[in-house]
Specification:
mainly alpha, 2 domains, 6 strands, 5% strand
């Protein structure tokens, strides 16, 4: 066990403290941070902060009642200026003191027809602000409860039969969480697996392995390497999660729907239960590939075949989400390479039977253990066949 720990420590430190790892970890958060900053800056610069005018010939806004709340840096409020007639409003528009004006004709209460006059269509948020003020004033004579109910409108909530997960119709972003989480985790898995495969190929090429195996067994070596790279991947994932939390904490001041993003603990536990053994499985397969080839370029080409099956559930995202208990979704759940992503997609929309979850995770754990064994076997055979490729017949047929 002490030798396995030493291999684990060596594999972890050799990657985490390298410049390329630090650059890889920080480059993506910095990229999205710069992208977000540029988007916010562009929105602020392009925003037209000139007032909006209105001509109320119907008397609806005679005693204007303002809406509650203040605008933020992005969703800022604009001043509304009343004009006694359209001629005055038109003159202000031509002088560019306002960005446009609304005209409510005398029969507005009967026809509900008004018009917006502007040389350039005002920002949709500004129009929504005026529309909300208009609704508030139309409901001025109603009781507070009735007015509040009408202003809130209706909202359809989709709920799983067990009541543990639900999603409102305007919470579309919550449907993207399982997709984003799967992509994020798979990125970490293949990045860390690539580190492991590259390390095995390099040690095989420079014959470092011949020295290592004199003091540690192949099983301990592969187990230590896989666990070490698993920790590297989890470190990378943890740093990204911290950046995401910080981005959400900052972004909630500018984007209102961030507050409606919600996670459930049972969903997070499911993700970890499915993705961790997948991590070990793919890392073991990557190590096995590295032990069976003679150069790193060839290993990278072969390892590409593992990424295709993992991405298959994303090709069927709509069928899986629309029918998460259908034959396609259930079938992909039982195939090891497609299981983790499929499970995260299904669990977001329906409760998965306990027996299916237990069987899916059991299969992944068995495959993870088998991949480590396969990597150790490939490593031992690679030591006996230096400079020569190992065929599948040799890998699975020769007695170790």
């Amino acid at each position: 066990m002490s030798k396995l720990w030493k291999v684990f420590k060596y594999e972890y430190t050799r990657h985490v403290f390298r410049k390329r790892f630090i650059f890889a970890v920080l480059s993506i958060p910095l990229f999205f941070g710069v992208l977000m900053a540029i988007s916010i800056l562009a929105t602020v610069i392009q925003a037209d902060t000139r007032p909006l005018g209105y001509v109320d010939q119907s008397g609806v806004l005679a005693n204007q009642r303002p809406i509650s709340g203040e605008g933020s840096l992005i969703n800022r409020s604009v001043e509304l200026i009343p004009y006694p007639g359209e001629a005055e409003a038109r003159a202000a528009l031509e002088d560019e003191t306002i960005q446009g004006y609304y005209l409510l004709p005398p029969d507005y209460l009967e026809t509900a027809h008004g018009k917006l006059v502007s040389f350039k269509e005002p920002d949709q948020r500004m129009q929504n602000q005026f529309n909300e003020i208009l609704r508030v004033n139309l409901l001025a004579g109603q009781s507070p409860d009735v007015a509040k109910r009408v202003l809130e409108g209706s909202s359809l909530v989709i709920q799983t039969p067990d009541g543990k997960r639900q999603m409102a119709e305007d919470d579309w972003f919550n449907a993207l969480i399982p997709i984003f989480a799967g992509v994020l985790f798979m990125t970490v898995v293949f990045t860390s697996g690539g580190y492991l495969m590259q390390a095995v190929v390099e040690e095989k090429e420079n014959r470092t392995m011949e020295i290592i195996v004199t003091s540690v067994s192949a099983d301990e070596l592969m187990a230590g390497k896989v666990l070490g790279n698993l920790s590297v991947g989890l470190t990378q994932l943890l740093i990204w999660v911290i950046f995401i939390i910080l981005a959400m904490a900052i972004g909630r001041n500018y984007v209102d729907w961030i507050d409606r993003i919600h996670f459930s603990w049972d969903y997070l536990i499911l993700m970890l239960g499915a993705l961790l053994p997948t991590f070990v499985m793919i890392a073991g397969l990557m190590a096995a590939v590295g032990a069976t080839v003679t150069e790193s370029r060839e290993a990278q080409q072969i390892s590409g075949i593992f990424s295709l099956p993992v991405m298959i559930p994303y090709w069927f995202t709509y069928p899986i989400m629309s029918n998460p208990s259908g034959p396609l979704a259930v079938g992909l759940s039982f195939f090891p390479l497609t299981s983790p992503v499929t499970l995260t997609l299904r669990a977001a929309f329906t409760p998965i039977p306990a027996w299916q979850l237990a069987l899916n995770i059991a299969v992944l754990v068995v495959c993870a253990i088998g991949s480590i064994w396969l990597a150790a076997r490939a490593f031992r055979l690679g030591m006996l066949s230096y400079g020569k490729k190992i065929t599948l017949r040799e890998l699975f047929g020769r007695v170790s």
